Amino acid sequence: MASEKKGKSISIKKYKNKREFNLGIVLFAVVFLYLIVTTVMYFTGDTISAYEVREGSIVNDNSYTGLILREETAVNAEAGGYVSYYQNENSKVKAGTNIYALSAQKLDTDAAGQASDESESQSLNPEIQAGIMYQIQNFNENYNSNSFSSVYSLKNEINTALQDAYSSSRMQQLGDAIAASGQEVTSYVTPRDGIVALTVDGYESLTKDTFTADNFDRSKYESTVFSDQMEVSAGSPVYRLITSENWSIIVQLDRETAEQLIADEITSIRVRIDKDSETLWAGFSVISRNGDYYGCLDFDNSMIRYAEERFLNVELILEDESGLKIPKSSVVEEEFYVIPEEYITTGGNSSSEGIMTGGTDGSAQFQEVSIYDVSEDGDVCVSSKELREGDVIYKPESSETYTIGKTKSLSGVYNINRGYAVFNKVTILCENDEYYIVQEGESYGLSNYDHIVQNGNSVSPDEVVFQ
Fold first, then answer.
1. Staple 321 to which of 157, 313, 404, 429, CB 3.0 to 4.6 Å?
2. How far is it, in rounded angstroms, from Cα 118 to Cα 109?
3. Residue 345 in contact with residue 355, Cβ under 8 Å?
């Protein structure tokens, strides 16, 4: 028995193993294939560039050198001699106020000035000092680096306060010098109220009716500056008296600009003056003379700031708009169907907006639509892909109907925040060569930091965009 068991052979059969389905390999293959297709599409297709929308502004301005015209007179000396002035430059005076004195010999005003130093310091009484300190403190608390011109405003206000404070001491100083000189000195008064300026240039009599193109040639311009102890002749100018706050700046315009300003019916304009970066509003008109065009800027304030100037560099601010800044290349035109606002409703269990259309069985059924704009007169713009011309829609809770057919063109850009192109309308405020400034905060419009397609013609609505 033992030998039989030992010699018996055992037969082993081999079976083919059944392969199990490997989901991981399938998913890997699908993802790998997707990456290959995406890569090929990226390198063979058109590259879509994105642009991040940011707040910005566009200022369209034209710079000119303007000629200042004022109501002013060059006052001539009534006699010859050495002149001494009672008033500071750009002092406001009343009729009958002493302006200057003439003497046969120079007066020693320096000695008189040293003697009156103490009285001058005392002229800044506590009330005046407190007023100046309050102006400076108020300026510091409200200073804005974007309005640097306020520095010049503070300077002028303090200068005015100091001139008023020192006016009486200057007259006392000159009186002491005259008494100490032992000379026969004659004082002269102003015939009118006004502002005293110690320069003349021969342009004092120019008006809007008499200026010529030659007056803008600065290479020929000369002016005379007066100072104490300067010798003057009888009948020659000794000071200038400005008698009105009204003044004008005349600028030379090219024909195209002048005609555009006339066509736009511009009657007032913002002006930035380069000297102190001050921005003023001016009345505006165009003057045509001998085939040349001039812009006339009329002001009724701030004249004393520029009383010493005959020419000013100015900028005419024709446009100054702030909003969202986008490339011009992003903007496209798209057609939409227009339906009355009262036909828009919400669907049963959702807050989605849509319309009621006719069902196949003749009943009305809700259809969701995408809205791209609602105008002030109640016109709603919906996608032309969601409706067809001739479709009939129903007014909610009414038997009234409306037939789709009216269209409207909107300017807009393709927003790609969600990874596909969505049309957003834009309202253009102004433009330059490369960019538009568009309205911010509009319904169905753009917001700051949105991402849009830089070249709007490179995509189609709802196209998937890889950023």
1. 429
2. 15
3. yes
Give dist(CA 79, CA 89) in Å, integer. Answer: 22
Dihedral Cα 174, 176, 180, 185, nearest 10 deg: 40
Which one, of 321, 318, 206, 209, lies nearest residue 258 by Cα? 318
Query: Diameter of the chain by CA atoms?
Result: 169
Q: Report the candidate in 251, 325, 223, 291 with the shortest Cα–Cα distance to residue 65.
A: 251
Residue 286 CB partners (closer than 8 Å, separation 6+): 253, 258, 261, 262, 293, 294, 295, 296
Please choose, from the candidates 242, 237, 295, 233, the residue with its C-alpha nearest in 3D space to the C-alpha of residue 264. 295
In eight-state DSSP terms, residue 178 is: H
DSSP 205-245: T--TTT--GGGG-GGG---EE--TTEEE-TTSEEEEEEEEE
Q: How many residues belong to the chain?
A: 467
Q: CA separation (Å) from 114 to 111, 125, 167, 169?
A: 5, 19, 16, 12
Q: How many CB atoms lie within 10 A of CB 102?
A: 21
* pLDDT string in tens for the chain (467-residue length): 444 445 555 566 555 555 666 777 888 888 888 888 777 766 665 567 899 999 998 887 889 999 999 999 999 999 999 999 988 888 889 999 999 999 998 887 665 555 444 444 445 566 666 767 767 777 776 776 665 556 666 776 676 666 555 556 677 778 777 877 778 889 999 999 999 999 999 999 999 999 999 999 999 999 999 988 899 999 999 999 999 999 999 999 999 999 999 998 999 999 999 988 888 999 999 999 999 999 999 999 989 989 999 999 999 998 778 899 999 999 999 999 999 999 999 876 677 888 988 765 567 788 889 999 999 888 999 988 888 898 889 998 888 899 999 999 999 999 999 889 999 999 999 888 899 999 998 999 999 999 999 999 988 888 887 65
Query: Hunting for tokens 């110690």 — which residue is that?
Result: 198
Contact predicate 380/371, CB 8 Å:
yes
Spatial contact of 105 and 82, defined as CB atoms under 8 Å apart: yes
For residues 316 and 61, the answer to whether their CB atoms sit within 8 Å is yes
Domain ranges in the chain are: 331-458
Token pair 């800027």 is found at: 297
Q: How many other β-carbons are positioned within 10 Å of the β-carbon of residue 326? A: 25
- Ramachandran angles phi, psi of 224, nearest 5°: -115, 130
β-strand pairing of 194-197 with 345-346: unpaired
Q: What are phi and psi of 79, to 5 degrees?
A: -155, 175
